[in-house]
Amino acid sequence: MNNTKLPHQISSLSDYTRMYDKSIENPEGFWTDIANSFIWKRRWEKALEWDFQGPDVKWFLGAKLNITENILDRHLDERGDQTAILWEANEPNEPAINITYRELHQQVCQFSNAMLNNGIKKGDRVIIYMPMVPEAAVAMLACARVGAVHSVVFAGFSSSALADRINDCQASMVLTADGNNRGSKKIDVKGVVDEALEKCDSVNKVIVLRRTNQEVKMVDDRDVWWHEAIDGMSSQHDAEEMDSEDLLFILYTSGSTGKPKGVVHTCGGYMVYAYYSFINVFQYEQGDMYWCTADVGWITGHTYIVYGPLLAGATTMMFEGVPTYPDAGRFWEICDKHEVNQFYTAPTAIRALQAHGLEHVQKHKLDSLKVIGSVGEPINEEAWHWYHEQIGKSRCPLVDTWWQTETGGIMISALAGITPNKPAHASLPLPGIQPIIVDAEGNELEGNNVQGNLCIKFPWPSILRTTYGDHERCKQTYFSAYRNMYFTGDGAKRDHDGYLRILGRVDDVINVSGHRMGTAEVENAINEHPKVVESAVVGYPHDIKGQGIYAFVIAEEGEIEDEIRMTVSKMIGPIAKPDHIQIVSGLPKTRSGKIMRRILRKVASKDTDNLGDTSTLLNPEVVEEIIKGAK
User: To 10 degrees, what angle do helices 593-604 and 620-630 make?
Assistant: First the structure.
């Protein structure tokens, strides 16, 4: 297939400037032009209504569609025999699987019918807790096709975390697998689901994919094997008509209160922005091989493995394994094997592979790469240069993308080969995105060489609509800090060239290997240990993970570090285990977690000489112990 530009793809820096200006002057007209390229069952009466005070944002009001018709049906005539999903297994010797658009359409329709046959109807919530296999994408698309709301949960989360999410959205079905091949390990996925469901009463059916062939317990009248569920089901299905503002999915992200919040994205606006951001940031051309290494359990996997690439008619790769199995050259071996053109991964993976040395890189050509990208957290300059020089061979543009679960798609990023690259800078906003930097009082800091809090002052199509079942939480978290603005929770700096650099979280959220979690969530888990009196948790700079977790624990007795790590791992997952635990005993409870965290941040940054008045607000013995820990 010839490489050609896609509709609405920016082609030059002057084109970017022109489109950006148009998007600011007439946002509704700008997004209407892009939306016109999709199939709609009924067109919208109005492009946008919005009020950040509510908050209440609606795009393409009154429009009817089904996103899967734009992902599958509309591609069948032109590229039905083109690979839609290329799947690479955990084991290098297991054959890759190519699924064409026609085959994917048939599988999605067949599983849609299986879900309906098992009691799912429009509006029901369905939890997907699966390994990185093609069926995970099929499950997401089948939910969208029948009008069910999917909520994908990363299949490394604990049974408690899974149960919290099931209960919060009152899911009626769970889609899972017997096990998960993860490097040299086989993980008992079904066992985690079984344990979670002991705490849930809303789930009626569990459909189980056979992947690892390990022995699992199947509950009568509840559990059904995937292959049996689809047996005899038609591979044709008429997609459910959805309103533009109907729920497409809920994705849970950690908050500072400890209770995960269900970020809601809706059908029409998310579709338009996922497509537009994908084709422009990565400059994907028809015939390219695109690979995002994320898991579908994260927003990156939703928007840039499944929805964005497939809306664009791209070939998107899914990888079951990990970057260091069977060795630290696995990513690069796959890039050569499948002649990958666009490669999108996390700074954590980059830093981890950098630490393994160049021997695993130098045996691979990597000459098919045209674009490399970074996602999940700000990338430090050393890792940026290593990635650009050793993987991109100093010729591939490096798109350092900034966005969030709540934004639905990439907001600030270089456009590959179009806008300039600057190490460790997210660069410029995409058309339609209006970022501003404000001071603590919400005053806009205009011009260059300014630093403050990053906000967005105008809605874009894929902005979150609410937090599921708790709209007030959405308002308080994102729209209350600064009037008439979406507050990102991140600090940012605009340099002398006008390029944006993201400085990281300014709230009580830690970003570990690109996975966000609230300090309160980790503290709550630590406090479950029977010998813990009180705890405070902060992030600190970590060479590999970006941020590590530093926990200060007041306990009845010491020597319980390993027990605390086990407790946290069981309640949240291994990713949340504290890297550094400082335990002191014999001290009273402070009941001042916020102040303790403030002091801990100073300690973690080696700034113990500048504690200010904060230290006078805590028991002096506690402050003394915290400072001892720093030394």
Answer: 30
Q: Three-state SS string across 571-606, please?
A: HCCHHHCCCEEEEEECCCCCCCHHHHHHHHHHHHCC
Would you mind telling me the total number of residues written for the chain in this entry?
631
- What is residue 2's predicted lDDT score, i.e. its pLDDT? 43
| Adjacent-strand bridge partners of 502 | 492
- Residues 6 or more apart whose CB falls under 8 angstroms from that of 25 comprise none
State how far the Cα of 418 lies from the Cα of 421, in Å rounded to an integer.
Answer: 9
Q: How far is CA 44 from CA 31, 137, 586, 592, 608, in A?
A: 12, 28, 65, 51, 58
Alpha-carbon distance of 271 to 110, in angstroms, equals 23
| Strands of 410-449, DSSP E | 435-438
User: pLDDT for 200-252, tens place per residue?
Assistant: 999 999 999 999 999 999 999 999 999 999 999 999 999 999 999 999 999 99
Pairing mode, strands 247-253 and 261-266? antiparallel
Q: Are 33 and 22 in contact (CB under 8 A)?
A: no
Tokens of 245: 């503002």
CB crowding 385-420: b at 16 or more within 10 Å, else e: bbbbebbbeeebbbbbbbbbbbbbbbbbbbbbebbe
For the chain, give the percent of residues with pLDDT over 90. Answer: 75
What distances in angstroms separate CA 543 from CA 11, 353, 513, one per listed residue? 37, 12, 11
Considering the entire predicted model, what is its pTM?
0.87
Token pair, residue 5, equals 């530009």
Cis peptide leading into residue 55 (ω within 30°)? yes
Alpha-carbon distance of 335 to 342, in angstroms, equals: 9
Cα distance between residue 407 and residue 57, in whole Å: 13
